[in-house]
Amino acid sequence: MASHQLLLFQLLLLLSSASHARDTISPGQPLRGNDTLVSPGAGSYVLGFFTPPGSNNTYVGLWYAKVPVRTVVWVANRADPVPGPVERNARATLSVSADCTLSVADANSTVVWSAPPAPGAGAGRCTARLLDSGNLVVSDASGHVAWQGFDHPTDTLIPGMRVGMDFGTGANMTLTAWTSPSDPSPGPVVAVMDTTGDPEVFIWNGAEKVWRSGPWDGLQFTGVPDTATYMGFNFSFVNSAKEVSYSFQVANSSIVSRLTLNSTGAAGGLLQRWTWVWAAGAWNMYWYAPKDQCDAVNQCGPNGVCDPNSLPVCECLRGFAPRSPEAWALRDNRGGCARATPLDCGNGTDGFALMAHAKVPDTTAAVVDYRAGLAECAQRCQRNCSCTAYANANLSGAPGHRGCVMWGGALEDLRVFPNFGQDLYVRLAAADLGTCRPTCLRSVCTQFF
């Protein structure tokens, strides 16, 4: 009986220790190389030192506590590792100072990476705490947030993280792919929110723009229409004077999902959404981009339209013809299309043709007014001779949610989808409103006004 009581006591001690796993570091109490922080509550995340497979360096990273395959979703010192593998770095530390500076040091106490606090922080005792969301938050005694990991994402977006700009803090939250699977240092592939015009997310590979999300239409990015079929996800897009950002949440904690940017496009596109399948014990790719030939930026040139279900995939907008028929015949569509008939805006004879199921053109230089409805948008574009197309900026249907997007000049990076997408109204000369040229996209010819 005594032995059973002793065993029960030891088990209770273990359970008590597990339920009080450490989630905080403070001055004089750093996290060492062989220790970890575990998020409170559901205990969803672990933060500690790790060495990527094939590497000879040590990093501070965040991974899932309950997913058996270690999957690192955030790295603190990605460009400033501690030399040597984690097995040799038991004396490395992650510490926070009295003035709220977070730092990583090697076994000789040499700081290899640090995160200075925001101005005004450091009022009293500072701590760094791992929240159940996975956010590592440095705060002072008054509760002022001096620094937080979610303002500095690496290659992965997890629930609650944002991509975009926080104008209040100055945080530019950009995803940057690892250089390689064994090297988390920043690679050339980045996903960044462009806040000019009607904001949208771009993927760049060095100086090359390789993918565009399209603007947010109140429900989803117009270039990611299959978002409408997702179950168990909540998507948020904030466009205000304080911030422009995209984030997502999951309906319950059993859904483990991440959005990851990689440098090679292996097993799919550069941007990939993965969901952990508990029954299979494996990650399942839920979505990826770029997905098809028409996801390439400006595949068909100015005023060209890409349709992956058409052969050839590139056609001209209604009322337009290839700038170079010879190049177009050889499937070189970079020159795009030019107007077949000049506009006559001064006499008010121009009209607009409807292009349905569109990923609307690049909105970097577009003009947006979220107070105007579609009818007012049409009138404004009609009166403005430089306006070449317009669309609704908000399709959510919520009271007070309207919006007008207007384009001037050539329409860049247009594509269509079979079922989803947005209505785009393209300005045409009167002579082209009632005809459909062989080179024009058939779906554009269905309606006009």
UniProtKB/TrEMBL annotation:
Membrane topology qualifier: Single-pass type I membrane protein
Provide this UniProt record's keywords sorted from A to Z.
Disulfide bond, EGF-like domain, Receptor, Signal
Family matches, as SMART domains: B_lectin, PAN_AP
Domain (Apple) spans 345-429
* Start and end residues of each Bulb-type lectin domain: 22-151
| One Pfam family per UniProt | S_locus_glycop
Q: Tell me where in or outside the cell this protein is found.
A: Membrane
All residue ranges annotated as the EGF-like domain in the record: 290-326
The cellular component terms of Gene Ontology attached to this UniProt record, alphabetical and capped at eight, are: membrane
Q: Quick check: keyword Transmembrane in the entry? A: no
Keyword S-adenosyl-L-methionine in annotation: no
E.C. number: 2.7.11.1
Which reaction does this chain catalyze? L-seryl-[protein] + ATP = O-phospho-L-seryl-[protein] + ADP + H(+); L-threonyl-[protein] + ATP = O-phospho-L-threonyl-[protein] + ADP + H(+)
Q: Which GO molecular function annotation, any one, does this entry have?
A: protein serine/threonine kinase activity
Q: One biological-process term from Gene Ontology? A: response to other organism
Source taxon at top rank? Eukaryota
Q: Which interval of the chain is the signal sequence?
A: 1-21
Could you tell me what this protein does? Involved in sporophytic self-incompatibility system (the inability of flowering plants to achieve self-fertilization).
PANTHER family recorded for this chain?
Answer: APPLE DOMAIN-CONTAINING PROTEIN, BULB-TYPE LECTIN DOMAIN-CONTAINING PROTEIN
Name the record gives this protein: non-specific serine/threonine protein kinase
Q: What is the lineage of its organism?
A: Eukaryota, Viridiplantae, Streptophyta, Embryophyta, Tracheophyta
